[in-house]
Write a structure and sequence with these properties.
- With 115 residues, this protein is an all-beta fold.
- It is built from no helices and 11 strands.
- The strands form 2 sheets. Strands 2, 4, 5, 6, 9, 10 and 11 form a 7-stranded mixed beta sheet that branches. Strands 1-3-8-7 form a 4-stranded antiparallel beta sheet, with no helix packed on it.
- Strand 7 (67-72) and strand 8 form a beta hairpin.
- The chain is globular, with a radius of gyration of 13 Å.
- It starts with a strand and ends with a strand.
- The mean pLDDT is 94.
């Protein structure tokens, strides 16, 4: 059974930093891309950043220059370094992994940024 587990969430003041990590367990075939999404209260889940196997990255505009996604292909892990956090970054953050035929999600980790 494949599981993705996020860690590293917490509460910080605006301007602070957090590093989220996502580890995988169980057999998982070749991962094409990994990513981070977030869902704020009352809003739909949205993409934050993705990273392909070759290292190509993609970010939504509000986090460009502040967040950095990275992955370890050998360990099938993905991290999200979040700097200069803003109250509007408050959300539950989810990691996902996409293979040729499956999409896997973690259960999420809460990030709260206070002003």
């Amino acid at each position: 059974q494949v599981q993705l587990v996020e860690s590293g969430g917490g509460s910080v003041q605006a301007g602070g930093s957090l590093r989220l990590s996502c580890t995988t367990s169980g057999f998982i075939s070749r991962i094409n891309s990994m990513g981070w999404y977030r869902q704020a209260p009352g809003k739909q889940r949205e993409l934050v950043a993705t990273i392909a196997g070759a290292g190509n990255t993609n970010y939504i505009e509000p986090v460009k220059g502040r967040f950095a996604i990275s992955r370890d292909n050998a360990k099938s892990t993905v991290d999200l370094q979040m700097n200069s956090l803003k109250p509007e970054d408050t959300a539950v953050y989810y990691c996902n992994a996409v293979t040729g035929s499956n999409l896997y999600w973690g259960r999420g980790t809460q990030v709260t940024v206070s002003s």
